[in-house]
Amino acid sequence: MSEFAVELRDVVKTFQTPEGGTVNAVDHVDLQIKHGEFFSLLGSSGCGKTTSLRMVAGFEWPTGGEVYIDGQPQGHKPPFQRTVNTVFQSYALFHHLTVYDNVAFGLEMAKTPKDQIRRRVGEALEMVKLGKMEKRYPRQLSGGQQQRVALARALVNRPKVLLLDEPLGALDLKLRKEMQVELKALQREVGITFVFVTHDQEEALSMSDRIAVMSQGKVMQIGSPVEIYERPNCRFVADFIGETNILNGEVREVEGEKAKVYVPALEQEITGFMQTRFQTGQEVAISIRPEKIRLAEQPGLKMNVFPVVVKEISYIGSDTRVWVQAGKTTLKVWEQNTISTLDEDAYFQHEEQAWATLFPENVLVLPLD
After folding, report:
1. C-alpha pair distances (Å), 230 with each of 42, 166, 243, 276, 364
2. Phi-psi region of 327 (alpha: psi -120 to 50; beta: other; left: phi over 0)
3. Of 16, 46, 200, 337, which one has the fewest beta carbons inside 10 Å?
């Protein structure tokens, strides 16, 4: 057995444009997805994530490079000859068939014996908690239940890899969050490889073992959710994943893994952590997550401390979102509400003066572009 369930080696997919030119929707992508991994392809619309998934499924063929499933090159092999199944955002259920018949459809096409079909469909429906609904039609189910039928139909074929193309996109927010938990638990239970496409950063962070962040057909970074969020390798990933403050500056001093960066917008030097080594005088960007900035009435540390003025406040329950004027720029600061109180003095007020503190390990020094 191969080390990887799915592998893309230098894969390119070129499409013709209406103007007569060409565009690389997937641009020399290398990916290795391990057996039993919940792996997400994350990016905005048009970044190449769905095209990559479709090439694994066999709905598209690479212009260059090769797709491997369990170590076997797929070439121009059609979808039905690949050991994968796909769950689409639209579910693609047969509305004239019952739940049972929808799930059994693939097995019947493969001429599986009837007793095996009955057993496997029953197991699949129990797995997605729909064991008592096999006689219902899709129109008699909620959106979440229809999604489970689509999952059962894919899992009943016992694929080595399950491909999921924004499968929760049609659900409302509350149900979507519930299904995220269920889908991750289901993946752990069945133990097969899930390759999940989404444009939702929170969804990818909460469900994945690893994430590939894509932009303009390229993979920008691959890592665990913690790595992607806490240690983005470039400005794009830092800005795309969650909220952040990004400011430009110039490296004044380098010592070990830390760099002192003069930030004109703040009118002062900021010490931060760098993953790649920069040279003195080099133009860089610094990224600071809003929840990592500390506001206080008095200055804290001796470094990375500067005065600010509160300009906007938005209370959203779990935290209070504060926008502060710092030097020549505005910073976003998310203050977690750890105490339940109606006392207005517990919250910062409009035009209140304060001190902002940035711990150096929370300031990331990144390439300028």
Report:
1. 16, 25, 12, 15, 9
2. left
3. 16
